[in-house]
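Crash report, auto-generated. Payload:
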Amino acid sequence: VSESFEEFVAVYGAPLGRLCHQLTGSHDAALDLVQDVLERVYVKWSRVSRAEQPFAYVRRLAVNTHLNSTRRRVPTLASDPAVLGAAVPPAPDGTETVAAEDELWRALALLPARQRAALVLRYYEDCADAQIAEALGCRPATVRSLVARGLAALRASDLTRSEP
Amino acid sequence: MTDLETRLRSTMRAREAEAPSAEEVRTRAFRVSTRRRRPRSATWRAAVAAAVAVPVAAGGLTYAVTRGPGQSETGMYAGPSGPATYAVYLVKGADSLPLLTRVGGVGAAASPGAAGAALWTLFAASSGGGRLNGWAGDRLLGVSSAKDGWHVDVARPPSVPAGASGRLVNAVLEQVSWTLAEATGSDRPVTLSVGGRPLTRLAGQDLYPTGTLDPLILDAAAKTGELYRQRCGSQQYVSVDGVRTPVRTVDTYPLRPDRMTTVTMRAGQTLRWLPEGLCLWQGGLGAARAPYDAFHAQGRGASWTPGRPGQWMVTLGGAADPDYGFVPTGSVGGPSRTRGAVMVRVTS
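Recovered output after restart:
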C-alpha cells in the first residue's frame, strides 16, 4: 500500500493541495484538509486505487471532508465579518489591484461552504455541472442554484468593488 | 462570462501560489502513512526509555542526556522548578542530513550552555527536500532541556527551501509528538507545551514563544517582502512625522534585527508605512521575555503613535495566526504574509 500510496501522492498531491487551498482559503487549513483527505484515501486505498478517475474520487472526498468540517467549526477571526468589515476601505494607490483581488478572495471566504465549493469547482477546477453535482452529492439544478447564489452574494458584497 | 466571473477566475489562479506545495503534501502523506502503522512494540519502547539514560554522540557532536525530576505524565516539559525536564528526539541516522535544532529555555536557561541545560538536539531531515525521515530503526540522539519554556531555532539544511524552516520546525515537533506517543504506547499524540501553554496546533503557527523574533514572521517576511515588491513594484518607506526612510527588502533568513531597516523615533511621534493605504501593525520584540505583549491591528492607512519607549518590530501585513494572538486585520493579503519589517526604537 505504502508504495502505491506514495505514487498516488506524487501524481495528485499538488492538484489536491491547490484544490484544498481554494476550498479553505488558507495555506494551513489547506494542509490540514489535505491530511484529512489523505487519511481517508489511505483507509479506502483499495477503492481509490481501483477508481477509473482517482482524482475525481479524491475531489469528492476533499469537498465532502471540507463541508463536514465546516459544519463543526466555530467561526474564526479571519472570517468574522465584523472583523473584515472593520477594515477601512483602501485608498486609491498603486496597490489597488492587489487589494481588490484580496478583497474578492476574502469575500469568497465569507460564502457558505457549499456555495464556495461550487464556485471553486466551476471556476477553478472547470468542472461541468454534472461533475460538481457528483462531488457535492446534489442535482445539477442545485449546482446552478449554488453558483448563482454565490455569484450574487459576491456581486452584492461591497468588498467586490474594484474602485471606491 | 461576466466581469465578476472573470475576476473570480483570475483571483483563484493568482492564489494558486499560496497553495501547499507538492513537498508539503508529501510530508502530510508521509505522516498519514506513519500514523497508520502499528504501535511500537514494548521492546522498542523499553529501548527508547533505556537510551534516555545514556549519553549519545552523533555527527561529531556530543549530547548530554539528562533526566530530570520534572517529567510529566506525557513525558514533556513539566518542570517549573528547574531546567531538567526533557524531551526525546529520534532520528534515523545513516542517510539523513542532520538538521541542528537548538532547544532553549526562556528565562535563565535561554542560551545553549546555560547552567543545567544542554540545549542541543539533533534532528534529521532527509536530503529529499526537507521531508522528515521515518522512524523505523531509529536510535535516540538527543535530549532537550528547558526550564519554564523553550524555543526552537533551526539551521536550515541545504535541502530545505529557504523560508520553509518555520513549517519544518512544526513538522519536526509534530513528529516528535507522535514519536513520544508511540514510545509511551499512546494512540494519541503527546501534548507538547511551551511555557506552560499546551501546543494544540502543531501544524499551525502557534509556536515560538521565544525571546527572539518569531521565525514565522521572519519566514513570511523573507518570502513576501520581495513578493510585495514584485507585485506592487514600489519601494516601501516608513515615515515618521513626514520624514521618509526606505525599507530594506526583507530577503534573508534567518533575519536578524541588525540587518533590518532601523527607525528611531520618540514616543508621541507618528509612524506611517508608505505607500499609504496598507495595513500597519506592530508587535513587541523580545522585551522582558514577553514578546508580542502588545499588538495593534489597524486598518489601511493607519498610523502608529507609540506612547512609551521600547523596541518594536513593525511589519507591513500580518504574519501570524489569529490563534496566536495576532489580529492582522486590513492587511493586503491577509495573515501569514508580511510584506516587510522594520525595527523601531522608540525613545522617550
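Post-recovery validation: Chain B has a mean pLDDT of 43.
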